């Protein structure tokens, strides 16, 4: 019976990254981009021998950045007979740099648990494809006798919308999703041609063209509710990695333009955490006034409200109002409606505006 050709299949981001790391640990001499795209699980299903693999190469470039962000030491090796050639660059993960530290040890019980966990991992759906990829790599002369020794998969937690948006972006598919903006009671369906998914200031953002508004918009992935679905019959031509840089430039400009002035209680948890983001005095025991750059007012308001009386917002007024609204909401949610205690009208327990007598009446 002739062999059954590979069929295109859906491969998750985590599975593709794991397979890539597995392959790069397994090689001493490194793999070229062509080796990786044509043999590693997650790439080979879409690889076109002798054809146009531009989108696949862009995906590989993003995956390299993701691997390095995970703390994995990815190296590039120039060919000795062709220095400076990007075409023949080889990639590898030096196993010695990714081993567990020499001073880390496990008890017998811990080793048993680790072995059980590794058994579950090996027997999962990833196992067959990983072995298949390694078999192909072995045919290229790669020594893969013990590729996973000292390696534990590290999976990044992302919003559920990350993977479907990334796939739609690679394939040029227009998508729709429900998006809930702060202050709105119900989400609104948006239809977007996704052009880039970028990480900025610790949060994932979608940069794309809103087809109904016919304008470029930036969306927080954390505000996408429900599934991301492909719009039948609607597509676009992916514009390359330049859109990601454009999105980051816009977010950086917004971050630099917006500054919040807050006062924190010295030595408090708020002082410790927020002082790290201030350009001035960063000693948590002494700092009181902090300037915070931000891209999204509501995200910052959520964070500051969580510190309670440890933070006082000085400006802008819109941020101060947003924080106060959240504090009042928390107070109301925990107030007995039948209570007649006058202090229950004040989130800070002093007056209806939630002010501090020593702070010139500004809300917390």
UniProtKB/TrEMBL annotation:
Annotated ranges, domain WCX: 262-327
Domain WYL residues, every copy: 162-225
Region (Disordered): 332-364
UniProt-listed InterPro entries: CBASS_pafABC_assoc_protein (IPR051534), WCX_dom (IPR057727), WYL_dom (IPR026881)
Residue stretches of biased makeup (Low complexity): 336-352
UniProt feature coiled coil, ranges: none
Stated name of the protein: WYL domain-containing protein
The organism's taxonomic lineage, starting at the top: Bacteria, Bacillati, Actinomycetota, Actinomycetes, Micrococcales
């Amino acid at each position: 019976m002739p062999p059954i050709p590979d069929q295109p299949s859906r491969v998750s981001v985590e599975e593709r990254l794991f397979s890539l790391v597995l392959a790069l640990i397994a090689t001493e001499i490194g793999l070229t981009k062509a080796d990786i795209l044509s043999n590693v699980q997650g790439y080979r299903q879409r690889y076109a021998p002798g054809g146009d693999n531009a989108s696949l190469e862009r995906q590989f470039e993003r995956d390299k950045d993701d691997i390095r962000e995970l703390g994995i030491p990815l190296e590039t090796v120039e060919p000795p007979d062709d220095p400076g050639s990007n075409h023949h660059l080889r990639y590898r993960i030096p196993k010695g740099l990714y081993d567990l530290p020499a001073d880390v040890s496990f008890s017998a019980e811990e080793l048993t648990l680790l072995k059980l966990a590794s058994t579950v991992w090996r027997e999962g759906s990833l196992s067959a494809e990983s072995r298949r990829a390694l078999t192909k790599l072995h045919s290229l002369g790669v020594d893969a006798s013990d590729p996973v020794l000292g390696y534990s998969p590290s999976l990044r937690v992302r919003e559920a919308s990350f993977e479907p948006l990334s796939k739609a972006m690679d394939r040029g598919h227009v998508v729709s999703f429900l998006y809930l903006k702060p202050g709105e009671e119900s989400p609104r369906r948006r239809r977007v041609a996704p052009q880039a998914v970028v990480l900025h200031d610790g949060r994932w953002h979608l940069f794309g063209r809103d087809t109904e508004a016919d304008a470029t918009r930036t969306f927080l992935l954390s505000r996408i509710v429900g599934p991301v679905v492909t719009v039948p019959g609607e597509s676009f031509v992916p514009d390359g990695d330049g859109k990601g840089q454009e999105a980051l430039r816009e977010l950086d400009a917004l971050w630099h333009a917006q500054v919040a002035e807050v006062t924190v209680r010295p030595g408090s948890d708020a002082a410790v955490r927020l002082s790290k983001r201030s350009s001035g005095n960063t000693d948590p025991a002494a700092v009181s006034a902090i300037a915070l750059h931000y891209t999204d007012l509501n995200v910052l308001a959520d964070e500051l409200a969580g510190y309670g009386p440890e933070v006082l917002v000085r400006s802008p007024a819109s941020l101060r109002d947003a924080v106060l609204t959240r504090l009042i909401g928390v107070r109301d949610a925990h107030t007995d409606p039948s209570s007649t205690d006058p202090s229950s009208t004040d989130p800070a327990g002093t007056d209806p505006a939630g002010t501090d007598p020593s702070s010139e009446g500004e809300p917390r």
